[in-house]
Amino acid sequence: MKPKKLGRAKMPVYTRKVPTGIPEPWDSEDSADEERVDPDLLHDSLPQPFRMIGKVLDGVLDRAWGVISDREAARVTERSRRKIPQVEFSDEVKLPVKANCLACTDDGKYVFVGFSCGISVISAVGHVRTATWEQDRVEIISIHCTCLGEMAYLIATVDDMGVSRVFAYYADYIYLIKLINETKERNKRNNCTKIELSEGGDYAAVLIDCNGDSWIEMYRFPKVSWLKELEAASCNQVTNMSGTEVAKFSPVVILLKIKAPDMLSGTSLKCPFEVLQKTASVIGSGLNHMISAQQWAEQRAIFKSVHSKYLDTGTCEMKAKARLGSLFFLLPGGLCTFTDGTRSLQGPPSAVCVWWRGDHNLYQYLLHKRAKEKTEDEAKPSVVWPNAQEIVCSAISRCTRHIALGLMGGLVTVWDRCLGLPWSVLSVSADSPFNKLHFLDCLPFSQDPFFPKIHVLVTCKNADCHVITAGRGMDFQVMQLCGRPADAEGPPTEVLSVHFLQMLVLLMYRNGTIVLLDTSDDTVVATLVLPPSHCLATPWSPVYTLDPVNQNLFVRADRYLCPEEDQDEEGSGSSLYVFSLGTTSASEPQREAPRKLRTLEDMCNQYLKERLVGQVTGCT
């Protein structure tokens, strides 16, 4: 048997069935697309039944978003198709000269007009001129008024030379009572930049500027004596004053002298006892501390060196003196105001609150002197309301219980001064600093009297408007207003809350357009139309006033001039146009319902019922 021949063992050979190819180059665009892929899609899909639940939820969200988009598109289309009602003027009052300022009385009977050579009185109903006070080279630029008594009115004015005058209108005569900053030598006279009267004419606040310094002088008026003297003067048929002669009336009394707060600086106090002794009864201003001037300078130098690239040149230097921001008279009140929330309490104001630009604090001063205080001494605040940021604007409710402060950084603080606590602190996402705040009235009887909803309109310098609905604590809502007429050119130059129409504001634009906007649904309610021959006078600073009783708007309009006419000519077509806002069909849904004053018993009963319901709900 032949032995088998051993051959070579065959090794397995692996060959490629597809020829090798050169890989494609890396595409940067594809890589960018891969980077933009949603990370959630890179994960493995969820197991059942979670995948089915996810698909159902995605479908529900898609359908809901489609419904929302369709409704929004339909709303925009309907708004564009809707014809905005136009309100024609009801009357025209022709003026012999151009009016610089207007003011309407609280009872809606008279309108006071300030012009280039005095003041005039016009009947708010018949629109007839009843009295005039004139003096050469006296151009009135600011005017305020209030009811002094039955058929007696107090008028406060400021002219272009910084002179403040107090008048009284009684029995169709204007009497010059007092020149506030009167001096024998004109060079030594302090300039008055602003004067405000309290409701009822008990007090007056006068802002004085002199050599860069600013302070407020608070005056108390002898209104009872003035009423008797006015009646006697009327019986004697005293004619209008010539302007250089002042009628013999009882003198006024200066109560307080409020100076601007000092800027923070170093002190020489070395222990807490000295700080407490220096502070006395005023706590919260931040001026009394133990930081020396050297420490203050060192900390400022460190701050500048660390944050130099974020600071502009000169921004770290503090101003020498602050300027007045706003001033409000405060009515007396307890823990709660037993009114409808919009009407003032009876009686004169008990305090005044002030804030200054560049400062964080709101100061409250009592309107009575203590036995140890002198008029020449600087008044000390009774309460200091500290805030987190610098105050830029403010507003106060008509019952003076709530004070809204707009702060730097988009913060809004609503203080409840009767409780001494912040009612609400919220942030508004605005791209521009705040400009003004306005309280919007709403029907108080549809709300809880102890925890009402407060509505505040916030306007920014870039013309953005926001409506804040603030409850107690963190209960708030912010809505941005976008509604504006199609023919409006640029942002509104004037925004005014119309108190006698619920949630309505008046907007005036630079091109002369005047509209009423409903802030509850961001809808233009009506457009106020001037005659084609006239245009809104000084649209960047309109001259107007509201009559709260007759619900009328008085606005000045000038006639379009021909090229050959002199623009400064007296009586060149200036008029006051009257618009009846309360009688138009467009404002029918926004009119105030008849109010019924709540009694203390009714409010207590409602409060106890709510407490009982809350306890029962908590037990169950």
TrEMBL record:
Biased composition (Acidic residues): 26-36
Pfam families the UniProt entry points to: WDR93
Protein name, per record: WD repeat domain 93
Region (Disordered): 1-36
The organism of origin for this protein: Paramormyrops kingsleyae
GO biological process: electron transport chain
